[in-house]
């Protein structure tokens, strides 16, 4: 509550405590409602401003990434003699490109050196029209060439190479440094390969000629998809170790999250949100093994390239869909099943592609990018609705998914060779932000449930203590009054009244919490004997505090009495209705299956939604949220009640005025 709220509440309470005319009190209540409505509108306004600002920022950042410069290299040459090599340098820009020729450094020293076909932008692929002045077929061979100068202060020049599609030989100053895979223009002699390497370069001169022979005869796109990184070997190795350490920490943390929430699901099998989050964490950890520093290739270098490719495709196809299902399990009121089916349907097609060779799968990469972007737009739309409807934790979830979308956009642009910005391994950072935010939301929900259970237990203990005290005082008083047969008869009547009072709630006349707990225990004993299940329904009046704050506690009491009578009229003769606490009610339905309990709860919900309660000329409309559960063999009483309460809490998160089955 803000300072304005508190000040207004104090003034309102003081004025109401005075014996003012009813017309003035009604005017005061109307003013209070107006203040709350204005504050609600203010909250909605700043949420709209936040959403528009973040979307505008996303568009701006995307445009900047696309329109960034082409890099350091121009016309196949770069002068790095003035660069301080405390940091490494990405060799981005226009390299010399020779199509359909596997040239060696000796070919460039011939009397008639080969004529360059075009310049080719790195990073990029040669079939991309944006990368070079010409568009080349995706399958074939080519030679890249670069000449560079570096300062004499650099004593240990080295080159970091990764993600060359899909086999290559690398020469430096005429010497063959490494061959990854088997380079050939014939399929019989070709073999793809992938390694993340840091290679020593000649240091006898400050001039380097770098030549890559690249062959791609199986994948959809070929070329230098990642820019080679030039610098001090010591610096490059330190950067790689830091990245690897961070990545392993990230993988370990996410994998622990996955195990924890899977165990939580096993203990609460109705908690589908925990299961989806566990799967999301597992997919993220698995994908991170082949991303960035590629720990899988470092620790298990003999794992076939095709296996890594399948992991890449499997996790890439399913990461966003599982994230969508997880978010929608929290904000169930913000989507339609038909729309969701259309959004997720393409994922089934891509999953079916996993039955085909990796080379064939790679032909559909561009379509995958389109699907992922559309799915991310959809989930952002769902979260925007949740933010505008002021759902719990919606702003945090929106910002986390927003960061992840930016990471996906940067990743797609980078691998499409668009723009010059390369935020290294932003995929990892985006995923980590999402996982942390989602973990916080999950933890907060569990904390709220635990807090509510503790409060219930404290109230129950306090009620028992007060009941025992009252019974002791009344018994002592009544025993002192017994002196004759008439007094004994009167005492019996008083005892019956006292016994009834100990079982019921004084305001509503319903059974109280202590008595209904005894009834539930009897049903558990009966179930063990005849195996006839029973159902529990916990119902809560929506926004009851606002009714008390707006119209007064007398009006709130009137609402409780009307609701209590409505519940009693709706149930069968053998059913029990109790006031569970505050504005909550518990219904015990013997020999009832889950479907029967759901139908009853839905009928009651509809009756209450249409009912108008009148109080002193004021018409009040209310709704209720219901959590429904049926007992199971392995459960104790507390487990069954907790499941019903969890279902009620989920209904509150979904927007209230609904029936949720545990």
Provide a concise account of the structure shown.
It comes from Desulfosporosinus fructosivorans. The protein is of the alpha+beta class. It is 56% helix and 16% strand.
Write a structural description.
The protein folds into four domains: 3-67; 77-227, Sandwich (Jelly Rolls), CATH 2.60.120.260; 236-449, Rhopdopsin 7-helix transmembrane proteins (Up-down Bundle); 504-661, Alpha-Beta Plaits, CATH 3.30.70. The protein is built from 18 helices and 20 strands. The protein has helices at 3-17, 22-67, 105-108, 233-267, 272-288, 295-299, 305-330, 337-353, 358-361, 365-388, 394-415, 426-481, 485-503, 513-530, 544-551, 553-570, 594-610, 637-653; strands at 77-79, 89-90, 93-99, 118-122, 140-149, 157-161, 164-165, 167-172, 175-180, 197-200, 207-216, 223-224, 229-232, 535-541, 576-581, 584-589, 612-615, 618-621, 624-630, 659-661. The strands form five sheets. Strands 1, 3, 4, 5, 8, 9 and 11 form a seven-stranded mixed β-sheet that branches. The chain has a five-stranded mixed β-sheet with strand order 15-16-14-19-20, with helices on both faces. It has a four-stranded antiparallel β-sheet with strand order 2-13-6-10.
